[in-house]
Amino acid sequence: MGEPTQMRAPKNYLRVDLRDPAEAEYWQVVLDAPRTRLEDALAAVGADALDVRAYLQGGTSRALAVASVRGLA
Predict the structure, then answer these.
(1) Which of helix, strand or coil describes residue 15?
(2) Angle at which helices 35-45 and 49-56 pack, to 10 degrees?
(3) For 35, what's the count of Cα atoms within 13 Å in the CB-facing half-sphere?
(4) Taking Cα atoms as reference points, which of 68, 70, 67, 16 lies closest to residue 43?
């Protein structure tokens, strides 16, 4: 079994970045989601932390919400 990863706060709290295992651990705890779910969210809405949180909570990203209001989505 692999060794546990020490959690570390992100360099930028506004962007979800899973490349660093210690930072990925932080986002898994803060957003209460497994890594695979976070990866799905990043693929769907990008790395903006607020958009990722909204996606995980079943909402839409801010960009998609604005686009739909403007009739673009």
Answers:
(1) strand
(2) 110
(3) 10
(4) 16
Rounded Cα gap, residues 51 and 45, in angstroms: 6
Residue 43 has what pLDDT?
94
18-63 residue pLDDT tens: 999 999 999 999 999 999 999 999 999 999 999 999 999 987 666 6
Name 5's Cβ contacts closer than 8 Å, sequence gap at least 6. Answer: 21, 22, 24, 25
Average pLDDT, the chain: 85
CA dihedral 46, 52, 57, 60 (to 10 degrees): -40
Quote the CA–CA distance of 11 and 48 in Å, as a whole number.
Answer: 13
Residue recorded with tokens 């360099």: 11
